[in-house]
Design goal:
480 residues, mainly alpha, 19 helices, globular
């Protein structure tokens, strides 16, 4: 068989396994909304961790981070991974655990539904839903962009960017529509194993092809020594670093698809165990991701701007055989699908529960699930349109989404931890925070080197406190 045929056969086998898992999961999925959208809240440690981890890992890590390290070097690891490894488990404790407990008590299925109930205000649910859509769609675009670029590069144009993007969307919505949350979580176990396992194997094999870890680093020292030190790049300045730390550490808990995964936990022990596994797994993934970009700068010099997003597949194509190139592509597909399925399912559940059910309370759960499936198709179509436009690099698009999600954190935290927090405070926090974020994004340079996310977060916190003053109307206050 030709190299291209081997690559496509490996990918076809991967798709076959994923679809098979989806079919099996569908047979275990009941007709209720809770079973379809949350898998009956039965996720144990392994399934929950792999679902959270798989959902969190996207082309932002597998392609965006190597692309960033290609230009900025080893400092990218400290700029991201070290913060994430500590920040995500902490946010799971501060927000995820009380959210899981409250969702179980109230029967809430979506984050917007939970906070609408907590703050006794349907308007809060609507505002949250709008914010989630605005920032989740661009994030979904980064996932499909990563697949299109990887397939186009690894197949050397045999499968076009446009066709690859269409295929990944079609297959993902296929098993998501059929099996719901249970299908997405079960496939995440397989998908997470594929992409984490391959990244570690590729790390060793690419280094070996370059003469070993020492020789690979020596080559960088000879051709691009600035990549082996942090240097004085603006992104590593204290104000920029600290404000990015806010975005990268707080954003994950604000992903609606991550909160919904937490809602699906069977018990608190499963959630605790997932938090314990997170730091080590993230370090194991981020070290290869950063070094691929650093090594790639010596092997493929001269890539400019968003062209560096292709550095990981370029290394794979250069140094690995056709079978492993197929596994590499399957790993990227796994990372993408494990996030896309959760995003599609979460947005569709919010449309069904937080908009349609509110307008028509008599809507049956069967109809609710059916509408959710239709909405998955609609979101996939919108995502594909934006993918074809390809507005910016993967890292740039993801940074915008991450910053937007952070504007929701004050509401997510205070809505669970502060009894005097009100619906007025929540809406003010989201609206004002996002307004300040967008204004500072539009400036040529961030004031004093502090990124827009920090300005927006400060405004969101202040608006939450002012909006919840006792002198304001108390309608919509959190129930005791």
């Amino acid at each position: 068989m030709s190299d291209q045929t081997v690559l496509l056969v490996v990918c076809a086998a991967y798709f076959g396994v994923v679809l098979g898992i989806g079919v099996v999961a569908a047979r275990h999925t009941g007709r209720s909304a809770e079973d379809y959208f949350l898998g009956g809240r039965t996720a144990k440690t392994v399934v929950l961790f792999m679902a959270l981890f798989g959902t969190n890992v996207t082309p932002f890590v597998l392609m965006g981070i190597p692309g960033l390290a290609y230009h900025h070097g080893v400092g990218v690891f400290g700029h991201n991974a070290a913060i994430v490894a500590l920040g995500i488990p902490l946010s799971f404790y501060l927000i995820g655990y009380p959210a899981w407990r409250a969702a179980k008590q109230t029967g809430a299925i979506t984050p917007a539904e939970l906070y609408a109930v907590r703050l006794n205000s349907p308007s809060v649910g609507t505002v949250l839903f709008v914010a989630y859509v605005v920032y989740t769609l661009p994030y979904m675009v980064t996932a499909v962009l990563g697949v299109g670029l990887a397939v186009d590069t690894l197949t050397e144009g045999a499968v076009s960017f446009e066709l690859a993007a269409a295929l990944i969307l079609t297959i993902t919505i296929g098993y998501t529509i059929v099996g719901g949350m249970r299908a997405t979580m079960w496939t995440n176990v397989f998908q997470g194993t594929v992409f984490l396992g391959f990244m570690l194997v590729a790390f060793v094999l690419v280094a070996s092809a370059l003469g070993g870890f020492e020789a690979a680093t020596t080559r960088v020292a000879e051709r691009a020594p600035e990549l082996l030190v942090k240097g004085d790049r603006p992104m590593f300045a204290p104000t920029s670093w600290a404000s990015w730390a806010l975005a990268i550490s707080l954003t994950v808990i604000a992903f609606p698809h991550m909160l919904v995964r937490i809602f699906a936990a069977r018990d608190v022990n499963a959630l605790k165990n997932a938090c314990r596994l997170y730091p080590l797994s993230l370090v194991l993934l981020w070290v290869p991701a950063v070094m691929f970009g650093v090594w790639g700068a010596a092997v493929f010099p001269g890539l400019e701007g968003r062209a560096s997003d292709e550095i990981f597949p370029l290394l794979v194509r250069e140094f690995l055989g056709p079978g492993l190139r197929g596994v590499a592509l399957a790993g990227i597909l796994a990372a993408v699908m494990s996030t896309l399925d959760a995003q599609f399912l979460t947005l569709s559940s919010m449309l069904s529960r937080d908009l349609l059910r509110r307008r028509w309370p008599q809507l049956s759960e069967g109809r609710e699930v059916a509408y959710g499936r239709v909405f998955v198709l609609a979101f996939a179509a919108v995502t594909y349109v934006f993918v074809l436009v390809r507005p910016a690099s993967i890292f740039q698009i993801a940074s915008f989404s991450f910053s937007g999600y952070v504007m929701l954190v004050p509401t997510l935290f205070l809505g669970l931890r502060w009894r005097k927090f009100t619906a007025t405070g929540a809406i003010a926090s989201i609206v004002v925070g996002n307004g300040v974020l967008l204004v500072t994004f539009a400036l040529p340079e961030p004031p004093w080197g502090v990124l827009p996310v920090a300005w927006g977060l400060a405004a969101a916190v202040l608006a939450a406190l002012v909006g919840s003053r006792p002198s304001l109307p108390t309608r919509g206050t959190m129930p005791a």
